[in-house]
Amino acid sequence: MTWKAEIDPGRCMASGMCAGIAPDLFVLDEEHARPRHEEVPEEERVLDAADSCPALAITIRDGATTVGPRP
C-alpha cells in the first residue's frame, strides 16, 4: 500500500529535515524539498518526516484522509 506525499512550496523553508530522515523518499532542491515520487510507502519514517517539518509543509494522505503530520 502507498500514501501520497505533497509539499507546499509556499510553506517549505528548505530545512532538509525530511531529506535527512528519509533521503530515499525526499530530496532538497535549491529552494524547496520535494518528494522523489508522488506515492510513498506506508512507513513510520514518512510520518516522522512530516511531523519533523518546522514549517508543516508536508502533507501525507491515504486517499481523502490526511494521515500526516500527526497532531
Automatic annotation (TrEMBL):
<protein>
    <recommendedName>
        <fullName>Ferredoxin</fullName>
    </recommendedName>
</protein>
<feature type="domain" description="4Fe-4S ferredoxin-type">
    <location>
        <begin position="3"/>
        <end position="31"/>
    </location>
</feature>
<keyword id="KW-0408">Iron</keyword>
<dbReference type="InterPro" id="IPR017896">
    <property type="entry name" value="4Fe4S_Fe-S-bd"/>
</dbReference>
<dbReference type="InterPro" id="IPR001080">
    <property type="entry name" value="3Fe4S_ferredoxin"/>
</dbReference>
<dbReference type="GO" id="GO:0051538">
    <property type="term" value="F:3 iron, 4 sulfur cluster binding"/>
</dbReference>
<keyword id="KW-0249">Electron transport</keyword>
<dbReference type="Pfam" id="PF13370">
    <property type="entry name" value="Fer4_13"/>
</dbReference>
<dbReference type="GO" id="GO:0005506">
    <property type="term" value="F:iron ion binding"/>
</dbReference>
<dbReference type="GO" id="GO:0009055">
    <property type="term" value="F:electron transfer activity"/>
</dbReference>
<keyword id="KW-0813">Transport</keyword>
<keyword id="KW-0003">3Fe-4S</keyword>
<keyword id="KW-0411">Iron-sulfur</keyword>
<dbReference type="InterPro" id="IPR051269">
    <property type="entry name" value="Fe-S_cluster_ET"/>
</dbReference>
<comment type="function">
    <text>Ferredoxins are iron-sulfur proteins that transfer electrons in a wide variety of metabolic reactions.</text>
</comment>
<keyword id="KW-0479">Metal-binding</keyword>
